[in-house]
Write a structure and sequence with these properties.
This protein is mainly β. It has 5 helices and 59 strands. Helix content is 4%, strand content 33%. The strands form 10 sheets. A 13-stranded parallel sheet has the order 1-2-4-18-21-25-29-33-36-39-42-47-50. Strands 3-5-19-22-26-30-34-37-40-43-48-51-54 form a 13-stranded parallel sheet, with no helix packed on it. Strands 20-23-27-31-35-38-41-44-49-52-53 form an 11-stranded mixed sheet.
């Protein structure tokens, strides 16, 4: 695998000159990447040469697509649009698949799909199922599970022709590349990898054997059970439904609580083996004929058949409800199908069985693209209720270049409980280069990381984001940087209510500066190899946990540790520690090398010993800070003592969380000025900068 070389072409120089003219760029106070260069924006003002119109209520696909005589379907417009043209879509629910026939040819010759001003445009991969009848053909094994009389169970027959060749109810979640369904056993102290307890897992096959199809009743999902008896209530002494041990590390256990964190299920569904008959039982034994019942009938709702299309804009559209499979490959509710230079703006991606939006190369083993992948813009969107990933992007081969991800909301991602497969995250990129990930809110993530940059990442910056409420034991990090030797940077973020803030995994040269960590188990931790040094291609060197810098951060109320290093070949300075654990130390050295950890005792240190034994944090201090954060309202209280002092600005960090200039020195943490109470710190909201 090779990363495409970064070349400063004439076009790039020209864009850097005209960039300030683009409205979206005028508000950018700090778009510097770790190597000191500015992020290369390519957008230009877009004036369409022709506009088509779609109205699902009054339109007809035999119409010319004018405002007075609109098309009925979006896909009709997708077959006609030429570079420089757009389609404007009226309110409505469009239950169709959109297959763009072509892309644009440049920043001023986009093809644009836009919701009409104020319109609520929904493109849904679900269809409505009516005419439910009492269930027949099964019984609840002696009715052991009955409580309060016989339950009311209903069935519906599905027509295979409804699905157009892809029936998610006949397909399991299991990824095509099954090699990552592995178990890693326990890592006791003294064994390689012991400082990664989230890898001490078993694999629950129930997750992967579950069918891809989802059923919704009045917008709420049903819990899928794998036997008819699972539709019955469990009586006294009646054990877990369909539990079947396979071996000591691979089990199959029911997952009855996938949706509990965000409202709970509307009932249960059993899918017959061929995927063509559904049996459902609603909460309160309701009659489904009195409700809106929808089933996912598609893998994706917008994806070009042709690979490598570019310069397409999607604006203001709500995408929802598909039954896509687990990665790899990465195929989202919406997919660029290996395209580049797409813009997603003010869209919503909800209720994907697996992935909300995929950009980049989709797989690890794809053929080299005709030009480097990436340069996509993902701005102002909402990613919610996606089972595995909200936003995904593979940069193999050649790298995923110059992606801008800003001012998005990611929440309630990862409910499939498949973190052991190591692909679950609100955002998961492979081989990202020159990424700018800023001013996003990533919160309420379950069974998944916040953002995971996996393998051969370079010159990426994660700045001015909120990461909040990400619990769990398996891959629970807010920021996870893996298998990387080039410089990347995590600065001026808020981390709150986490198992782990930043994981530096098999990674060198990461800068973690001016962040605020509140109420986390661990602020920053590291690992270097599970059993042997990790060789990183294409660089021909190991990523062994050296030359990582942790500077000028604020840690308040860490339950276990503020900073954990695996080697002494790293550095920290200027960090502030408040209300750290009294016993056991809050700064840890896990061994001079991870591969000699059996012979070197782990060191648990306080700040004085951290300074004395290793010379770290000579400008660090312990302080009495008052801080609290609400992940729902995004209100922050932060009060520093008077003597906390300013520190020299590191690198080019001359703008704070709000984008305000800091001068030659600044307070530790993300704010140039602290001491505020219940301040709104939503990074997407310009009002928070006043």
């Amino acid at each position: 695998m090779m990363i495409w070389p970064r070349r400063l072409t004439f076009a790039a120089v020209l864009l850097s000159v005209v960039g300030p003219l683009v409205p979206a760029l005028r508000a950018q106070a700090d778009a510097r990447l770790p190597d000191g260069t500015q992020f290369q924006f390519w957008e230009k003002p877009f004036t369409p040469t022709k506009t088509y119109y779609v109205n699902g209520t009054t339109g007809n696909d035999d119409n010319p697509g004018t405002e007075d005589l609109p098309f009925k379907t979006i896909d009709k417009a997708a077959q006609i649009l030429e570079p420089g043209e757009r389609v404007v879509i009226a309110s409505g629910v469009y239950r169709e698949s959109v297959d763009p026939a072509r892309g644009g040819t440049g920043p001023d010759k986009l093809i644009s799909y836009e919701a009409a001003p104020g319109a609520n445009v929904i493109i849904s991969g679900a269809m409505v199922v009516k005419n439910w009848a009492p269930s027949t053909g099964f019984r609840g094994f002696g009715f052991r599970g009955r409580q309060n009389g016989s339950p009311k169970i209903y069935e519906a027959e599905l027509n295979g022709a409804w699905f157009g060749g892809y029936n998610p109810f006949a397909m399991v979640n299991l990824p095509q590349q099954k090699g990552f369904l592995v178990t890693l056993h326990d890592h006791p102290p003294g064994a390689p990898g012991y400082n990664m307890p989230w890898l001490a897992v078993t694999i629950n096959l129930a997750t992967y054997y579950r069918r891809r199809g989802l059923v919704f009743v009045d917008g709420k999902p049903l819990t899928q059970v794998d036997s008819y008896e699972g539709l019955f209530d469990r009586g006294p002494g009646f054990g877990p439904r369909s539990t079947r041990a396979v071996n000591a590390t691979i089990v199959e256990e029911p997952q009855d609580h996938l949706f509990d964190d965000f409202g709970g299920p509307a009932g249960r569904v059993f899918i017959e083996n061929d995927g063509l008959t559904l049996h459902i039982r609603l909460n309160g034994d309701g009659n489904p004929n009195d409700h809106l019942v929808e089933i996912t009938a598609k893998q994706t709702v917008l994806r070009p058949s042709r690979r490598y299309l570019g310069y397409i804009r999607i604006k203001g559209i709500h995408f929802e409800k598909v039954g896509n499979g687990f990665p790899m490959p990465q195929i989202g509710l919406v997919s660029t199908h290996r395209g580049s230079h797409w813009i997603f703006e003010d869209d919503t991606f909800e209720w994907a069985n697996s992935i909300g939006l995929d950009i980049g190369g989709e797989v690890w083993d794809g053929s080299p693209p005709p030009e480097p992948l990436g340069h996509d813009v993902v701005r102002g969107n909402v990613f919610r209720y996606c089972g595995i990933e909200g936003l995904s992007g593979s940069g193999t081969p050649g790298g995923l270049h110059g992606v801008l991800v800003e001012k998005n909301l990611f929440e309630w991602i990862g409910w499939q409980d498949a973190a052991g497969m190591s692909e679950s995250a609100a955002v998961k990129f492979h081989a990202a280069a020159d990424l700018l990930f800023r001013q996003n809110v990533v919160r309420h993530i379950r069974h998944a990381n916040g953002i995971w940059l996996d393998t051969v990442n370079e010159n990426d910056r994660i700045t001015r984001n909120v990461f909040a409420d990400i619990p769990g034991e398996i891959n629970p990090q807010a920021v996870h940087i893996e298998a990387t030797v080039k410089t990347n940077e995590v600065d001026d973020n808020i981390f709150s209510g986490l198992t782990g803030g930043v994981l530096i995994r098999d990674t060198n040269n990461l800068i973690v500066s001016n962040n605020l960590f509140l109420n986390c188990r661990i602020g920053i931790t590291m690992t270097s190899g599970l059993a042997a040094p990790r060789l990183i291609f294409p660089y021909g060197t190991t990523a062994d946990g050296v030359n990582n810098r942790v500077d000028n951060n604020v840690f308040h109320r860490m339950q276990q540790s503020a900073i954990e290093f695996t080697t002494t070949l790293n550095s920290s300075d200027g960090n502030v520690f408040s209300e750290m654990p009294r016993w056991g130390g809050y700064l840890r050295l896990l061994g001079p090398t991870q591969f000699e950890v059996a012979n070197v005792p782990e060191q648990w240190l306080n700040l004085e010993m951290w300074q004395t034994e290793h010379g770290w944090d000579k400008n660090g201090k312990v302080a009495d800070i008052d801080a609290s954060f609400n992940p729902d309202t995004l209100q922050l209280t932060l009060k520093y003592p008077q003597d906390i002092g300013n520190l020299p600005v590191l690198e080019h960090l001359s703008a704070d969380y709000f984008g305000k200039a800091t001068g030659a020195s600044r307070l530790p943490g993300p704010f140039a000025q602290a001491n505020f109470e219940n301040r709104n710190v939503d990074p997407r909201n310009p009002d928070s900068e006043n």
